[in-house]
Amino acid sequence: MKSKISIFGAVAMALILTVPAVRASANTNSVDVTKSMQEARATAYQLSETADTLHSITNNGRLSWQTHSSYLESAREGVNQLGKMLANLEELKPNATQTQQLAIDRMRPQLVQTANSLTDAIELLNERRHHIYFPEYREKVQTVSEQATSMHQSLDAVLDYESAKARLDRLEMSVESGS
Predict the structure, then answer these.
(1) pLDDT digit string, tens, across residues 71-114
(2) Does domain 30-178 sit in CATH 1.20.1420?
(3) Would you report the helix, strand and coil content of the chain in percent, each value rounded to 5?
(4) Does the global pTM surpass 0.70?
C-alpha cells in the first residue's frame, strides 16, 4: 500500500513541478508572438509613413520621377521586410492568442494587396517616367498608403487590446490574492 501512495505522491509532485514549466513555456511563446507583432507594427508604421509621403508627393505634381522611384524602393523594402515578419508570425501562430491569430490571418491579404499595388506603381513609373502624374499611378500609390495604414492600425489595435487584457488579468489576480 505504501508503494502505491509513494508512486501517487511522486506522480503528483512531478505534475505540480511541471505546471510552472509549462506556464513559463507558454508565457515565453506568448512573449515571442507579442514581440514579433510589435516589430511588425513598427515596420508597418514606417511603411505607412513612406507610403503617405509618396501619396502626398504624387498629388503635389512637382517632383521628379527619381524622387518617386526612391520612395517606391523604400516602400518595397518595407513590404519585403513585413513579408519576412509575417512568415515568422505564421510560424508562431499556434502560440498566439485568438485575437493575435486573427490579426496574423488578416495581415496576409493586406500585405498581398499592398505588394501588388506597389508592383503596379513601380511598373507604371518605369513605363511613364516623363509623365508620372496620371490617375492609374495615383490610385496604386493611394492603395499602398491605405493598406499600409490599415496594417499598422490593425497591429496597433491588437497589441493595445492584448496589453489591456494582460493588465486586467494582473488586476484580477491581485484582487484574488488579496481576498
Answers:
(1) 999 999 999 999 999 999 999 999 999 999 999 999 999 999 99
(2) yes
(3) 90, 0, 10
(4) yes
